[in-house]
Amino acid sequence: MKNGRVSQRAADQRALRTFALWMGWAISALTVFLTLYRKANVMNFVQHDSTRITWIILGMFVFGVVVSFVQAMRLTGEWFRAYRIENMVRNKGISGVTMRGGGHMVDRFTDALHLIAERNGRLDIEALVDVEFSAQHRMSQFVGMLGNLMITLGLIGTVLGMTITMNGLHGALGALGIDQELLVDGLRTAMSGMGVAFYTTLMGSVLGGVLLRVFSWITDASVNGLQDLMVRTYLVYASADLEPSDERDIRALDASVVQLNQHMEMLNLAMRASRKEMKGLGKDAAGMHQALKTFAEDDPVRNLTAVHARYALGVRPGVLNRMFARFRD
Q: Is the same domain home to 190 and 106?
């Protein structure tokens, strides 16, 4: 028993790997972002970006990080549940898994295996695990897609910035030697365009191409590892329970008998408790009978008690019937 607790505690620690890896990379991402803020003055440019492309890139990055964080937390819960299921299957087979609510993927996967085994269906465990975990794969791919879109927006910003630069230089060259203010405005526009081209490329490639893609890889790798754990658990510890055979039917019948015995034990406990209560009720009724004998025949309390006794006789069978029959005699 002690070894089982130690093993389960070690499994719970392993279940935190996804969350720990995600948090480690989040700290790295925050460090990169602070470096960009201090060295490249990114936030100052974002505030004054007239094209708003950097705003879109930054917003998509924050949204992708939030989605990835929610997925990482959910996968951590799935890992905890998966290790508990592994322990139950190792000890008692597939019939020993106690199902519970909560919407865990591993519980839905286990329930599907139960249903296939009960109906003696053809089992393709790898196809089933792909179907059950496909939603988490799509979420990881969505985060990766956001990273790709951010890279694309960075390239669009680069082209747009170069266009602004060319227009500014064209205006500055046209005002050369004619209007000093137009020359300065043209050069200022050209420099603004160069800033758009530089910062959009920098933010799209770093935030989307590096940071967000790694977040996507962390969750996707966690889903793959969770699939491998569930497939290995049932192939190693419950393969005999999943193959249609007479032995599997006998084991299922034995498990049903064990559950029936447990229900019978609970019913016996309830019956013993009921008998105990009935004995106490009989003692109380006998005491009431003795107390009623002490009243005089014309005592109003006795008459009132007799009225109540007749009423109780109509609604309470069993022990009270005998008592009130005695009382009438």
A: yes
Q: What size, in residues, is the chain?
A: 329
Looking at the fold, whether 149 and 83 belong to one and the same domain comes out as: yes
Listed residues 243, 278, 311: the one ending a domain: 243
Residue 326 φ/ψ region, left for φ over 0, alpha for ψ in the -120 to 50 degree band, beta for the rest: alpha
What is each CA distance from 50 to 66, 89, 160, in whole angstroms? 26, 60, 12
Structure tokens at 33: 């972002």
What pLDDT is attached to residue 26? Answer: 92
Q: CA 151 to CA 307: how far, in whole Å?
A: 91
User: Which residue ranges of the chain lie beneath pLDDT 50?
Assistant: 1-2, 6, 320, 327
Expressed as residue numbers, the domain containing 196 is 2-243
Residue 286 pLDDT:
67
Look up tokens 């000890």; give the residue: 91
Query: Is the residue at 248 inside a domain?
Result: no
Taking the complete model, does pTM exceed 0.70, yes or no? no
* Structural domain count, the chain: 2
Structure confidence at residue 15 (pLDDT)? 82
Tell me if 275 is assigned to some domain: yes
Are 130 and 237 found together in one domain? yes
Q: Do 145 and 270 belong together in one domain?
A: no
- Distance from C-alpha of 193 to C-alpha of 161, rounded to nearest angstrom: 4
Q: Does one domain contain both 134 and 260?
A: no
Average pLDDT along the chain:
78
- Residues 6 or more apart whose CB falls under 8 angstroms from that of 55 comprise 46, 49
pLDDT in the model for residue 254: 65
Q: What is the DSSP string of 135-165?
A: HHHHHHHHHHHHHHHHHHHHHHHHHHHHHHH
Quick one: tokens of 247?
Answer: 């032995």
